[in-house]
Automatic annotation (TrEMBL):
Belongs to the NmrA-type oxidoreductase family. It comes from the Eukaryota. Pfam families: NmrA (PF05368). GO terms for cellular component: nucleus. CDD domains: NmrA_like_SDR_a. This is Predicted protein. It comes from Hypocrea jecorina (strain QM6a) (Trichoderma reesei).
């Protein structure tokens, strides 16, 4: 693609993993990039400015700030975060005061943020490109499992807005939307070190999830690849749904590749939901996470939806480079990572 100098992309979450990757890729493509952040003076925001982006103050809880931030947008990239309201002590206090679980509280917060993004995007629908509303989302666990998973909140809080709310309230915006589901992040071992790389007494490493060992799982390098994938999606016709993934393989294959790279003997063990919940350290985190790993067995992380992947985009003649788990894992300093995760030197 040539320079897109006149086009403006507004990037939600521009200081984060996904949005940061998108901002850098669209800058490289010659777009004007406007990154949204609550704190424009933060080091991450300033880093974006040094790369040539404009950074504006906006809060997903403040609709007027989104109206200002999206003014003149040709493309909007949307991402919402379930985990900050889940973990934040102030949010936990508010959840308690409302008499709801903090799993539920984080659902309500993420849903509201998504809805505010959609409401503001709908106001600038005329200036958006034909495929100008690119949204990061996940499958609807409640609907895709036929009601079996009623509390996989960090999936449903995304899917209830992208696409459900947008399609119901803003058909014109929905017609310009692409839904980008994201695979398990390669970096998620940081959140679940015991389950990803549990250290056994004999020095071996064990990956221990509640997922069926034969189930193929989509996985993604969010910082490296979300930008490339989103840029490729922008070049496709609108109205389609995707899975951003650099690797599709089972968990036993994932740990086998890791073992080959590190030289550390390692294996996969499917554990009971109870064991996985306990390994997460706190019941609500354990419940949310374990539901995800069970849902990943059936109907599948993608909910059994037919989602386009990088190879489908390439078939359409559009460049869509992605990083495999093996390529990504080879670049990491596993000695340092394991020392950090296991709390000692290896
Ligand atoms: N870990 C996984 O394996 C995985 C897999 C698939 C999907 N996901 C999903 O990925 C999402 C998180 O994405 P990420 O990793 O890119 O996020 P991240 O790196 O944690 O960054 C969050 C971004 O959201 C912005 N933000 C948060 N609250 C905001 C608010 N009230 N107003 C304005 N901006 C706000 C932050 O900006 P400022 O702080 O600068 O304001 C930051 O840029 C989660 O919802 C998670 O469910 C994770």
């Amino acid at each position: 693609m040539g320079s897109q100098g006149e086009k403006l992309i507004c990037v939600v979450g521009a200081t984060g993993n996904q949005g940061g990757s998108v901002a850098r890729r669209f800058l490289a493509a010659g777009f004007r990039v406007r990154g949204l952040t609550r704190n424009p003076t933060s080091p991450r925001a300033q880093e974006l400015v040094s790369r040539g982006a404009e950074v504006v103050q906006a809060n997903l809880d403040d609709p007027a700030s989104l109206d200002r931030a999206f003014a003149g947008a040709n493309v909007i990239f949307s991402v919402t975060d379930y985990w900050e309201p889940f973990f934040h002590p102030e949010c936990r206090k508010q959840a308690e005061a409302k008499g709801i679980s903090y799993r539920r509280f984080a659902y309500e917060t993420e849903y509201r943020h998504g809805k505010n993004i959609a409401d503001a995007a709908a106001k600038v629908v005329d200036s958006l490109d034909v495929n100008g509303f690119l949204v990061s989302t996940l499958s609807h666990a409640g609907k895709c499992s036929g009601g079996k998973f009623k509390e996989l909140y960090h999936f449903d809080s995304k899917a209830d807005v992208f696409p459900a709310y947008v399609e119901e309230h803003y058909p014109e915006l929905a017609a310009k939307m692409s839904c980008i589901h994201t695979g398990f992040f390669y970096t998620s071992f940081n959140i679940l070190p015991n389950s990803y790389f549990g250290k056994l007494p004999d020095g071996r490493v064990e990956m221990a999830f509640a997922t069926d060992p034969t189930k193929v799982v989509p996985q993604l390098a969010p910082v490296d690849d979300m930008g490339s994938f989103t840029y490729a999606v922008w070049q496709m016709p609108p109205g389609k749904s995707y899975m951003a993934a650099g690797t599709n393989c089972t968990w036993p294959e994932t740990i086998e590749t890791w073992s080959k790279i590190t030289g550390i003997p390692a294996s996969y063990r499917q554990v009971s939901p109870e064991e996985m919940i306990a390994a997460c350290g706190e019941p609500q985190l354990g419940g949310e996470i374990t539901d995800m790993f069970l849902y990943t067995s059936h109907p599948g992380y993608d909910g059994g939806m037919k989602l386009l992947q990088a190879e489908d985009i390439r078939k359409a003649g559009i460049d869509c480079p992605m990083t495999t788990w093996e390529e990504w894992a080879r670049k990491q300093d596993w000695v340092a990572i394991l020392a950090r995760l296991h709390g000692n030197s290896q």
